[in-house]
TrEMBL record:
Protein name per its UniProtKB record: Signal peptidase I
Entry's Gene Ontology cellular component terms: membrane
Compartment(s) of residence: Membrane
Organism from which the protein derives: Ramlibacter tataouinensis (strain ATCC BAA-407 / DSM 14655 / LMG 21543 / TTB310)
Active site residues of this protein: 129, 184
SUPFAM superfamilies associated with the record: LexA/Signal peptidase (SSF51306)
């Protein structure tokens, strides 16, 4: 078992290193599931097999020591091995290293697995597509149950939950490459007609209320951008527009239901198909979103982003957002 366990741990470690170095495309959900499964099997084996064996060995040791003490006492010799007996018993009952690193870690790994899979999952914002709502380096929490519980890895829905609503900030698996997680704002739900023409958002023929606010200073780019306050689905948030970028959408890919969209020099108009969502970044001219790669299927939904729990460059960022 020690050799087998060493090979298993080496396999996990090798996969993690290869992922970190970019040699393989990692899947943390799958890795965590396998770690939970493997350590759970070791935990069961420890409870049902290995621990009873160690206890039996300790009981035999105590019985042998008792017989030896009785034999010595019969000859008038007072035995004195209490301390040695206790130390030997402790060594017999102690978990070996290969169980410490498997069965011993199972409760922690199980708690992380349940928390991450069904309650809340942490994410780090890697790009500026959601500026000014979310900044690069924000560490956020995503609610995994609002939109319905799903089985990890295979993503099968367990509960219905509440469907995503216009204005929600949603994390989803990027449709062209589902191994990647993206975060955008939902602007169109199934059946909506979404128009983004001349950098103005319209839903079902109704312009989304927008008003200008003071320009936003991007410290990373060291430049100002025009900023607007937008209200959608009962949520109020801010968006950015770059006056130097054209209104039309360059380089749109082929994607399912692309026939539902009409592209022009002014932008695009899309009819959201059933079971899909249209999403956009708040940094409107610096966001790779549904305008370029299409609609988000319901099966790709991960959860609803709602809280910045840390930004090591700016502690004031901590808090909820819309």
């Amino acid at each position: 078992m020690p050799v087998l366990t060493a090979l298993v741990l080496a396999g996990f470690g090798g996969y993690a290193v290869a992922w970190y170095l970019g040699f393989v495309e990692g899947n943390f959900a799958l890795l965590l599931f396998l770690a939970t499964l493997v350590t759970g099997l070791y935990w069961l084996a420890e409870r049902l097999v290995f621990l009873p064996r160690r206890r039996q060995a300790a009981a035999r040791l105590e019985a042998d020591a008792g017989q030896r003490s009785a034999s010595l006492a019969a000859r008038g010799i007072t035995p004195d091995h209490g301390g040695d007996l206790a130390a030997a018993r402790q060594r017999l009952l102690m978990q070996p290293w290969w169980l410490d690193w498997t069965a011993g870690l199972f409760p922690v790994i199980l708690a992380v697995f349940v928390l991450r899979s069904f309650l809340f999952e942490p994410f780090k914002i890697p790009s500026g597509s959601m500026i000014p709502t979310l900044l690069v380096g924000d560490l956020i929490l995503v609610n995994k149950f609002t939109y319905g519980l799903r089985l990890p890895v295979i993503h099968t829905r367990l509960t219905e939950g509440t469907p995503p609503a216009r204005g929600d900030v949603m994390v989803f698996r990027y449709p062209p490459r589902p191994s990647l997680d993206y975060i955008k704002r939902v602007v169109g739900v199934p059946g909506d007609e979404v128009a983004y023409l001349n950098k103005r958002l319209t839903i079902n023929g109704q312009p989304v209320p927008t008003q200008p606010v003071p320009d936003f200073f991007d410290q990373d780019a060291m430049r100002y951008a025009r900023q607007f306050q937008e209200s959608l689905g009962g949520k109020t948030y801010r968006v950015l527009n770059d006056e130097d970028r054209p209104a039309f959408v360059p380089g749109a890919e082929d994607y399912p239901y692309k026939q539902n969209c009409r592209y022009s020099v002014e932008g695009l108009v899309c009819k959201v198909p059933p079971g899909h969502y249209f999403v956009m970044g708040d940094n409107r001219d610096n966001s790779l979103d549904s305008r370029y790669w299409g609609f988000v299927p319901d099966r790709n939904i991960v959860g609803k982003a709602f809280f910045v729990w840390m930004n090591f460059g700016d502690f004031k960022r901590i808090g909820s957002f819309e």
